Amino acid sequence: MRKESHISHFTLQEAIDMVQQLEIPNAYFTHISHQLGLHSEISEELPAGMHLAYDGLEIRV
Asked: How do residues 25-34 score in pLDDT, each as one tens digit?
């Protein structure tokens, strides 16, 4: 995932739009390109309930 269009992957905005369309209350984005930017900066731009995943993340359900 990155901000620019790609032939076979969502952009960050496309992923956000899909989460909102499906009304997913808590989403974690994976397959993040280094071209997306710094984790801390991108995390601040995400709407509530959306997060960037990271190595070692554990999600308890």
From this structure: 999 999 888 8
Residue with tokens 């390109």: 33
What's the one-letter identity of residue 23?
Answer: E
Q: Residues, the chain, total? A: 61
Band of the pLDDT at 6, cuts 50, 70, 90?
confident
Residues 6+ apart with CB under 8 A from 9: 1, 2, 31, 33
Calculate the alpha carbon distances from 45 to 8, 26, 36, 40, 41 in Å: 23, 15, 12, 9, 7
